[in-house]
Amino acid sequence: FKKQFIFICACLVSMSAYAQDIVSSTQGFFLNLNGQFTSWSTESQYFGEIDDLSDGGLGISIRAGYGITQNIEVFAEYGVAGISSDFSFDTYRISNFHIGGRYNFGATLRAVRPFLEASLSNQSLTIDPITFDQVVFFESESSGWGGAVGGGLHYFFLQNLSASGLFRADFGNFGNTSLSGRDVSDLNEDLDYTIISIQFGLNYYFQ
């Protein structure tokens, strides 16, 4: 009886340790779908007061990546958001692509996993129509490369399913600009941008 009791206790301890090991996992391939709020600003004279009269807007993003370890992952993300403004635009949209890395803190024993990330990003801004001298109407398209830093946290409902929140800031310059298809990139000024995004979404890790 004593040997049976010891065997049962050993099994229970082993099962308990295994259960603790699978509270959360950020390793392997994953998909992430987010809703997001996006706003932007610039010091450029080209855009005038357009950014000051913008209220930000809602959008979505999708991310795919791979957790190399429980702490380190790489990812690629595409997002788009429509921007609200005091002006009446047919189109006022920011879209972006990010490729980068994330460091997840904590370990598999924790349901809450904070993280920090950094990425290279390409931003595109479309405004239609935009006016000059209150007469001529153009579609303005600008794009350019920059960098982004952000942080947030996961909350794992299951070992491979979590809800997450992310705050991210993008900085860079629009190096390419066109008006109704005509290149006007040589404007003798930097079309800088700062873009702030707040995301909430779900993450699924393929185990």
Structural class: mainly beta
* Average of pLDDT: 86
With helices defined by DSSP (H or I, 4 residues minimum), what is the helix count?
1
Output the strand order for the largest sheet: 1-2-3-5-6-7-8-11
Poorly predicted segments:
5-19
Order of helices and strands: HEEEEEEEEEEE
Inertia-based shape: elongated
Distance between the termini: 40 Å
DSSP strand count: 11
The percentage helix is: under 10%
Estimate what percentage of residues fall within beta strands.
Answer: over 45%
Compact overview of the structure:
Helices cover 10% and strands 64% of the residues. With 207 residues, the chain is mainly beta. Strand 5 and strand 6 (112-132) form a beta hairpin.
Could you please describe the fold and organization of this structure?
The chain has 207 residues and is mainly β. The chain has 1 helix and 11 strands, in the order H-E-E-E-E-E-E-E-E-E-E-E. The chain has one helix at 2-21, and strands at residues 28-41, 54-67, 72-82, 84-85, 91-104, 112-132, 136-158, 161-173, 176-179, 182-183, 192-205. An 8-stranded antiparallel β-barrel has the order 1-2-3-5-6-7-8-11. The protein starts with a helix and ends with a strand.
